[in-house]
Amino acid sequence: MKTIECQVADISNLTPYVYKVMLKPAEQVDFKPGQYLNLVMAEDDKRAFSIASAPSDALIELQIGAFGEDSYAMQAIERLKTSESVTIEMPMGNAYLREDSQRPLLLLAGGTGFSYIKSMFEHLANTNSERPVTVYWGLRSAEAAFELDKTKAVVESLPQATFIPVAEQADGQWPGKVGLVHQVAMNDIANFEAYDIYLAGRFDMVGIVRDDFIERGAVKEHMYADAFAFI
């Protein structure tokens, strides 16, 4: 782990409640797809956010969902908006992409957990991976989606890859599927034994997905999520 100063290069809205933050590190820092960083607010206040960019990118991208004026995430956004530079600690986390495996990949995320899997599929595209990849992104509503066309293009640039957005609520214009994301995955895939599975989202959701997928053959040793350290 390194402590690094970063210039706040840009902050923009992906949706009214999701912010895209671009950081320019003062030095080269190596990390693995799927790791996260700590934004240092104070010595005793360090806030964890998944890295959405691929390791080869010049800038570090974060996608931060922030609700409420004084929430954990909004406090971080306000710090980033009012600072020319910030301090981060990285890399963090053990639920990173296992590149020595050749098993098919299942990347599944809910909400802004998307940033965790985005780092992975962008890295796979950058390295011309030939592994089979299925990407599921679950959202409460179609209005919460962003960069769908861009994501579809990146994922489907891989030779054996599919991107499936899933909304719990959507109208007839929605380009993906409707329902709970992991239940849609279970409808699509009869048995998960062959897969390396990477999960991100609310801790309660990740726990449910883990248990349901194991009942469908998933191998616990081939399932990865930062949430597993807490549930």
Supply Rg. Answer: 17 Å
Q: Can you name the CATH architecture of the largest domain?
A: 3-Layer(aba) Sandwich
Low-pLDDT parts are: none
Shape: globular
What count of helical segments does DSSP give?
5
Query: What is the mean pLDDT?
Result: 96
Q: Which class best fits the helix and strand makeup?
A: alpha/beta
Strand order of the largest sheet: 4-3-6-1-2-5
The topology string of helices and strands comes to EEEEEHEEHEHEEHEHE
Report the sheet with the most strands, covering strand number, pairing sense and barrel closure.
6 strands, antiparallel
Q: State the helical fraction.
A: 10-25%
The CATH superfamily name of the largest domain is Nucleotide-binding domain of ferredoxin-NADP reductase (FNR) module
CATH fold name of the largest domain: Rossmann fold
Strand content: 35-45%
How would you briefly describe this protein structure?
The chain is an alpha/beta fold and 231 residues long.
Structure in words:
The chain is an alpha/beta fold and 231 residues long. It folds into two domains: 2-92, Translation factors (Elongation Factor Tu (Ef-tu), domain 3, Beta Barrel); 105-229, Nucleotide-binding domain of ferredoxin-NADP reductase (FNR) module (Rossmann fold), CATH 3.40.50.80. Helix content is 23%, strand content 35%. The chain contains five helices and twelve strands. The chain has helices at 72-81, 114-126, 148-155, 181-188, 203-215, and strands at residues 2-15, 18-25, 36-42, 45-50, 60-65, 85-92, 105-110, 133-141, 161-169, 177-178, 196-200, 223-224. A six-stranded antiparallel sheet has the order 4-3-6-1-2-5. Strands 10-9-8-7-11-12 form a six-stranded parallel sheet, sandwiched between helices. It is globular, with a radius of gyration of 17 Å. The mean pLDDT is 96.
